[in-house]
Amino acid sequence: MATRRMISKEVIMTDDFLDLPPTTKVLYFFLNLEADDDGFVGNPKTVMRLTGATKEDMKLLIEGKYVLLFNTGVVVITDWAEHNSIRKDRKKDTRFTKEMQQIALVEGGKYQWLSDVQPNDNQTTTIDIPNGCIGEDRRGKDSIGEERVVEVDREQSPTPPTLNQDFVNLYKSFEQETGKALSPIQMQELQYMLEDFSADVIHEALREAVGQGKANFAYIQAILKRWKQDNLLTVELIRNNKAAREAKKQQNNSKPEPQTREEWLANWSEENPF
């Protein structure tokens, strides 16, 4: 399964999406991050718990048609094809085949309920129907129960993958230190950071930025870039390098200031009289 996930500006840079509460937008991003290669998320309740999202956040995503919710509790990202195009030789087909049978990928790259795709005689619609049939237990538009929004039927759903805990921990640390939630673009950049650096190194960059009073995302990226150029790719190397620089700085500060010619002559005469 591919590990890198993309987010399309065509979806998130719209007035409707930007008007969503910050917690709802964060939930949407994390659902995209956790989705399999077909856009399905089998553990939305776990994602909600880790991100601090509420049932209201999930309902807003459902009502805005950003995700579709199945009776099993599984969700699928409606614009998955817009966000991600995965090569066939790298793609792993979803295990949620029962849910896949209830939707269609329509023209424009959106998932829709198969029962909603009903072109009239004067209209043609391009439809990609996996396995060619519809399930009987699709989730109705108006049947979103408070207690069923994030329920997962464990007997019908396979064991979901584990959410990247390093990403979650880093996100929370960034949010705590900077005082604001990361934007979807910054969260995507954070995902790229984890491909180049360990979570410990990124935490170290965050600590250094905070210590210098510059706890902003761009400055942290600059720190990481400098460390990579200097081949400092572990916390031990970074701290040893910092200690060496501090020692050299103290050594330079302990050297006596240069004397003027007159001061030198006076000292020389006192110490070496004729």
From TrEMBL:
Q: Where does the DnaB/C C-terminal domain lie? A: 172-238
Q: Please report a single Pfam family linked to this protein.
A: DnaB_2
Disordered, as annotated region: 244-274
Name the InterPro entries on file: DnaB/C_C (IPR006343), DnaD (IPR053162), DnaD-like_sf (IPR034829)
Gene3D superfamilies named among the record's database cross-references: DnaD domain-like
Taxonomically, the superkingdom here is Bacteria
Instruction: Quote the NCBIfam families the UniProt record gives.
Output: DnaD_dom
Q: Which family does it belong to?
A: Belongs to the DnaB/DnaD family.
Q: What is this protein called?
A: DNA replication protein DnaD
Q: Which organism is it from?
A: Streptococcus pluranimalium
Q: Which gene encodes it?
A: dnaD_1
